[in-house]
C-alpha cells in the first residue's frame, strides 16, 4: 500500500468506520477529542517551560498565567475526563454484559465535556482570566485584575463540563442497576451494594463468601464515580458562588468579598477538588490496573476480596485527606493538619501500594508473559505512581511542607509524574488493549513507533519530574516567574525532557492516524449506520 | 544544628535512593515476568507483610520528621513559646508593608512573623542568597497567619510571596529584607 493510500484509508485498509456501532463511535470520539486536548496541554506545557527559562515578548505575563490556569483544567477535563468517560461508558456495559443505559446521554456527556472545555480554554485565551484552578478566594472575583466577562464564560465552560460529568455518573449507576428490555428483573439493590463495596466488607467479616454480581473493575468505576459526584457538586456550587459575584459586577453591584470566609472556602474547595487527585484518580487507576492485569493474564485477580474492600477504604480515605493542602495555613487547626493532613493521607501509601502489589502479583502468577504494548505501558503506569505517591506523602508532612509547599517539587515529582507517567501510561495501556476491540480488528501501523512512544514518554516524563523536583528543592516556586535566570538550567533540562514527551506523543498520534487513516478519523464523527445497542457488531 | 538546608539534603538523598531502587525493581520485574520460568503464585503472607511494611513506613515518616525537624514541634505548639521578637507585616494591593525597612534579628532569637492580608490570599517566605527556601506560610485574609522561627546562624534573606495572587503578584519580592546578625548586635 502506498503512503498516501495508508494515510487516507489506514493500515491495510482494515479500519472501516461504517462497520462501527454507535457505542464504538462514542468511545472513539471521546478518545480522539481527549488526545487532541492532550496535544493542547503538551504544547501549552512546552510554551510555559520555555517562558520559565527566559520570558519572551510575544507572550505577556498575564497570558502566561492564563495558560497556566487553562493547562491543568484542559488536561484533567478535556483530555483525561474525555478518555476516562469514554472508556468507562464502554467498559461498564462490556463487563456487565448488558447495554449502556442511555447512548443519548453518553453523547451528551461527550458534547458537554468537549464544548465546555473549549469555552473555558477560549475564554482564558481571549480575556487572560487566570485565577488558577485553585481559585483561592477572593481572587476569582478580583475584577481589578481580571475581566468579568472573561471570567463569566470561563466559569460557564467549567459548569458545562460538570453537567456532562453528572450525566456520566447517572449513566454509569443506571447501567449497573437497570433491567434491559426483555431481561429478567435485575436485583438493583444488591448490584448497587456490591458496586459500592458493601458485599466485600461483609465478606471480610463472614465465614461464608457471598458472590459478587458486579465485576471488580466495575466496582472501581462505581466507587470512583461517587467521588466524581461529590467533586462535581463542589465545583458546581463554587462556580455558582463565583458567578453570583460576576453577575452582580456586570449589573453594577459591588458585592462584599469579605462575606465569604477565605479559609472556610479554601477547606470546602480543597475537600471537593481533592476528590479528583486523591479520590477518583487513584480509584479509577486501581480499577484499570486490575482490569488490565486480568485481561493481559487471563487469570483472576490476586486477593480479589481484599482489593474490593481496599477500593472502599480508598473512597473513605479520599473524603478525609484534604487538609494536606492546608499544612501551610497557620489558622488551620493543628488537629486537622496532623490527623487529616498527615496520618490519613499516609493511608494512601497503603491503598495505592496495595493496588501496586496486587497488580504485580496477578501478572507474576501468569509468567512468562509476552511484552505486549498494553503490558509495557501498564508497567510504566505502575512505576509512575510508585514514584509519585511517596513524593506526595513526603510533602504531606507538617515539617517538610514548610519548605516544600508551592515549590516545583509538588508539581514535578508528585503531580506531573503521577499524571503523565502514572495516569497517562495507564490510559495508553487501556487504549492499546481496546484498540482492536473498538476498531473491529484494525492493525497498528508501526510497532517501532509504539516503542519510540513508550521510551520517549517514560524517560521524558520521569526526567521532567526529576528536574522540576531538583528546582523545587533549590527553592524554585511554582505559579511565579523568575527574570534573572535563577533556575534556567533546571528548566532547560526539564524542557529537553518535555520535548522527548512531545516527540513521543507525535509518534503515537501519527501511528494512530496511519492505523485508521484520515477517512477513518472523519468516519468516527459521522452518524453510525449500524443501528444497535450492542457494543460490537458481533456481540 | 539541623536547618532547612540540611533537611532538604536529607530528603534529596532519601528520595533519590528510593527512586533508584523502585526503577530497578520494576525493571527487574519486567525482565523476569517476561523471561523463562514457572508461574508461581504469590503467597498471601508476603502480601500482608507488605501492607504492614507500608503502614509502618507511613507512620514512621511523620514520627521521624516530628522528632528531627526542629521547627515541626515549635510550629504546632507555637502558642507555648514566647517570641524574642515579633514583626507585624501587612499585605495589601500586592505590596508588603513592613514595620521597618530592614528586619534585623539576633542569632538564636525565636522570631514571630505575624502577616496580615487586607485583600487577597498571598504567601510569605524567606529565601537565602542562593534562592533556596528557608520557610514559607500562606497568608489568608481575615485570619491569623503567624509563624515562629528560630534563627540559628547569621545571614541575609529575601522576602517573597509564595502564593499566586494574580499576575501582579510576581513582583512581590523584597530583596535582602531580613538580616540575621550575631547575638546582641540587633536591638
Show the helix and strand layout:
The complex is a heterodimer of chains A (about 550) and B (about 190).
Chain A: H1 3-9, H2 22-53, H3 61-96, H4 103-127, H5 148-177, H6 188-196, H7 198-204, H8 216-250, H9 262-297, H10 304-318, H11 334-364, H12 373-395, H13 398-404, H14 408-438, H15 447-473, H16 488-524
Helix pairs in contact in A: 1-16, 2-3, 2-4, 2-16, 3-4, 3-5, 4-5, 5-8, 7-10, 8-9, 8-10, 9-10, 9-11, 9-12, 9-14, 10-11, 11-12, 12-14, 12-15, 14-15, 15-16
Chain B: H1 4-34, H2 44-68, H3 70-76, E1 85-92, E2 95-97, E3 103-106, E4 110-117, E5 122-127, E6 133-139, E7 146-150, E8 155-160, E9 173-181
Parallel strand pairs in B: 1-4, 3-9
Antiparallel strand pairs in B: 1-2, 4-7, 5-6, 5-8, 8-9
Would you kindly provide a written description of the structure presented here, covering whatever features stand out?
The complex is a heterodimer of chains A (539) and B (187). Chain A has helices at residues 3-9, 22-53, 61-96, 103-127, 148-177, 188-196, 198-204, 216-250, 262-297, 304-318, 334-364, 373-395, 398-404, 408-438, 447-473, 488-524. With 539 residues, chain A is mainly alpha-helical. Chain B is an alpha+beta fold. Chain B has two domains: 4-27 and 42-68, no CATH class; 83-181, Cupredoxins -  blue copper proteins (Immunoglobulin-like), CATH 2.60.40. Chain B contains three helices and nine strands; from the N terminus they run αααβββββββββ. Chain B has helices at residues 4-34, 44-68, 70-76, and strands at residues 85-92, 95-97, 103-106, 110-117, 122-127, 133-139, 146-150, 155-160, 173-181. In chain B, strand 5 and strand 6 form a beta hairpin.
Amino acid at each position: 500500500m502506498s503512503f498516501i493510500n495508508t494515510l487516507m484509508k489506514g493500515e491495510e485498509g482494515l479500519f472501516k468506520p461504517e462497520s462501527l456501532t454507535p457505542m464504538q463511535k462514542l468511545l472513539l470520539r471521546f478518545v480522539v477529542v481527549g488526545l487532541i486536548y492532550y496535544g493542547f496541554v503538551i504544547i501549552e506545557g512546552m510554551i510555559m517551560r520555555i517562558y520559565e527559562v527566559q520570558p519572551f515578548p510575544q507572550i505577556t505575563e498575564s497570558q502566561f498565567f492564563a495558560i497556566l490556569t487553562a493547562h491543568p483544567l484542559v488536561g484533567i477535563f478535556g483530555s483525561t475526563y474525555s478518555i476516562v468517560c469514554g472508556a468507562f461508558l464502554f467498559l461498564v456495559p462490556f463487563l456487565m454484559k448488558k447495554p449502556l443505559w442511555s447512548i443519548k446521554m453518553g453523547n451528551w456527556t461527550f458534547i458537554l465535556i468537549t464544548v465546555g472545555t473549549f469555552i473555558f480554554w477560549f475564554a482564558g485565551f481571549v480575556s487572560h482570566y487566570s485565577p488558577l484552578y485553585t481559585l483561592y478566594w477572593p481572587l476569582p472575583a478580583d475584577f481589578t485584575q481580571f475581566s468579568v466577562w472573561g471570567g463569566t464564560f470561563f466559569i460557564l465552560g467549567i459548569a458545562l463540563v460538570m453537567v456532562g460529568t453528572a450525566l456520566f455518573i447517572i449513566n454509569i449507576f443506571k447501567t449497573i442497576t437497570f433491567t434491559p428490555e426483555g431481561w429478567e428483573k435485575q436485583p438493583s439493590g444488591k448490584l448497587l451494594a456490591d458496586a459500592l463495596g458493601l458485599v466485600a466488607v461483609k465478606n471480610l467479616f463472614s465465614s461464608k463468601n457471598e458472590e459478587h454480581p458486579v465485576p471488580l473493575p466495575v466496582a472501581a468505576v462505581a466507587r470512583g464515580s461517587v467521588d466524581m459526584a461529590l467533586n462535581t457538586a463542589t465545583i458546581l456550587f463554587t462556580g455558582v458562588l463565583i458567578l453570583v459575584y460576576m453577575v452582580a459586577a456586570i449589573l453594577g453591584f459591588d458585592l462584599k468579598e469579605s462575606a465569604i470566609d477565605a479559609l472556610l472556602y479554601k477547606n470546602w474547595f480543597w475537600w471537593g477538588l481533592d476528590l479528583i487527585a486523591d479520590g477518583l484518580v487513584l480509584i479509577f487507576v486501581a480499577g484499570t490496573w486490575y482490569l488490565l492485569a486480568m485481561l493481559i493474564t487471563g487469570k483472576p485477580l490476586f486477593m480479589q476480596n481484599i482489593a474490593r474492600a481496599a477500593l472502599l477504604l480508598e473512597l473513605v480515605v479520599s473524603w478525609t485527606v484534604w487538609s494536606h493542602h492546608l499544612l501551610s495555613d497557620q489558622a488551620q487547626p493543628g488537629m486537622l493538619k496532623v490527623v487529616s493532613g498527615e496520618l490519613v493521607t499516609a493511608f494512601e501509601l497503603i491503598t495505592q501500594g496495595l493496588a501496586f502489589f496486587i497488580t504485580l502479583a496477578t501478572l507474576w502468577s501468569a509468567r512468562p508473559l509476552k511484552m505486549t504494548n498494553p503490558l509495557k505501558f501498564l508497567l510504566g503506569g505502575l512505576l509512575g505512581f510508585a514514584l509519585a505517591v511517596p513524593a506526595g506523602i513526603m510533602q504531606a508532612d507538617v515539617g517538610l511542607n514548610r519548605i516544600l509547599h508551592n515549590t516545583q517539587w509538588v508539581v514535578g515529582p508528585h503531580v506531573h509524574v503521577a499524571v503523565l507517567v502514572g495516569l497517562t501510561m495507564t490510559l495508553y495501556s487501556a487504549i492499546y488493549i481496546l484498540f482492536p476491540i473498538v476498531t473491529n480488528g484494525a492493525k497498528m501501523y508501526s510497532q517501532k513507533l509504539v516503542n519510540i512512544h513508550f521510551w520517549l514518554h517514560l524517560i521524558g516524563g520521569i526526567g521532567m519530574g526529576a528536574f522540576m523536583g531538583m528546582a523545587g528543592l533549590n527553592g524554585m516556586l511554582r505559579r511565579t516567574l523568575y527574570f534573572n535566570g535563577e533556575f534556567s538550567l533546571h528548566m532547560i533540562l526539564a524542557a529537553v525532557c518535555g520535548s522527548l514527551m512531545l516527540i513521543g506523543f507525535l509518534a503515537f498520534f501519527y501511528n494512530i492516524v496511519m492505523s485508521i487513516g484520515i477517512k477513518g478519523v472523519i468516519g468516527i464523527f459521522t452518524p453510525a449506520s449500524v443501528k444497535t445497542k450492542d457494543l460490537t457488531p458481533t456481540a | 544544628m539541623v536547618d532547612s538546608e540540611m533537611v532538604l539534603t536529607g530528603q534529596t538523598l532519601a528520595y533519590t535512593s528510593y527512586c533508584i531502587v523502585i526503577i530497578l525493581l520494576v525493571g527487574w520485574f519486567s525482565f523476569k515476568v517476561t523471561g523463562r520460568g514457572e508461574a508461581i503464585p504469590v503467597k498471601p503472607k508476603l502480601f500482608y507483610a507488605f501492607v504492614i511494611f507500608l503502614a509502618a513506613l507511613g507512620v514512621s515518616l511523620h514520627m521521624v520528621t516530628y522528632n528531627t525537624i526542629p521547627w515541626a514541634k515549635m510550629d504546632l505548639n507555637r502558642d507555648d513559646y514566647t517570641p524574642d521578637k515579633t514583626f507585624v507585616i501587612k499585605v495589601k494591593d500586592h505590596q508588603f508593608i513592613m514595620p521597618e525597612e530592614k528586619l534585623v534579628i539576633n542569632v538564636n532569637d525565636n522570631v514571630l512573623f505575624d502577616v496580615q492580608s487586607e485583600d487577597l490570599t498571598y504567601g510569605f517566605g524567606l529565601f537565602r542568597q542562593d534562592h533556596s527556601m528557608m520557610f514559607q506560610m500562606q497568608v489568608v485574609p481575615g485570619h491569623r497567619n503567624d509563624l515562629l522561627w528560630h534563627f540559628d546562624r547569621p545571614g541575609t534573606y529575601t522576602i517573597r510571596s509564595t502564593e499566586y495572587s494574580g499576575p501582579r503578584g510576581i513582583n512581590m519580592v523584597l530583596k535582602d529584607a531580613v538580616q540575621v546578625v550575631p547575638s546582641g548586635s540587633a536591638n
